[in-house]
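Thanks for the sequence, V.! I ran DNA-directed DNA polymerase right away. Repeating your input here for the record:
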Amino acid sequence: MSKFTWFSGRGPALTHNQLERLRALREPAELDERSLRQQRFVVLDLETSGLNMRRDQVLSIGAVVIDNGAIDLSQQFECTLQRDGHQASASTLIHGIAPSQIANGVEPAEALLDFMEFVGDSPLLAFHAEFDQRMLARALKQSLGYRLRHAFLDVAEIAPLICPQAKPGLAGLDDWTAHFGLQVQERHHASADALATAELALILLSKARQQQLDSLPALLQALNSRRRQRAYSM
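Predicted structure:
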C-alpha cells in the first residue's frame, strides 16, 4: 500500500490503514474515584539504544496488565522495533537485543499503533517512569504524530510513599523486589522487567488501599504532597 504524508505535509508518512487506526485510538480515561482494585493499569518497560532521551531510540516494548487487582497474564505485549542502521553499542550488552533482531523488527509506526491499541484508555505504570514516558512520547510523536496524554505513574515514587519505614537507599527495581522477597527470573528484558514491575506494583497498590489511598486521584494527591514536602526540605 502506498504511503502518504499527513498533518499539513510535515508529519510522518502513514498508510491509509495506519491513519484510520490512529484516528480510532481511545482517549485517555478520566481519573475517577473507582477503587484501585477496579482499575486497569498497563505496566510497561522499554529497552532503548541508550539513555539520551533526545537522541536514543526505543528498541523494544514489553507490557503486562493489572486488572481487577491481579496481573492478567492473558494480556501481555512484546515487540521489537525495526531501526534502520542500528549498530551494537554498550547498551547491547545490557538489553541483549542483537542488531539482526532490530533489523527484522516491526516497522515503528505499526509497532506503536499496536501498543497504543493494547493500552486503550488505561493509565500507565513504569519504574522510573519519567524516562519511559519521555522516550515513548518522543517515539509516538516521531512515528505517528501522536501526542501521549495518558496518566503515567512512577512505581519508584509510589514505593517510598507507601513504605516510608523501608530502609534508606532503596532506589532501583532490584532493591524493591528484593525488599519484598520477589523472585525475578530475568532482568533488562522489556517483558521480564514489566512483569517484575507489575508484581511490585500489585503489592504497593494493595498497601495503598489499606492506607485509604484507594483511587487514582487520592494516590496522585498523596504523591504531589510528598513532592512538595521534599521540595521544601531541600
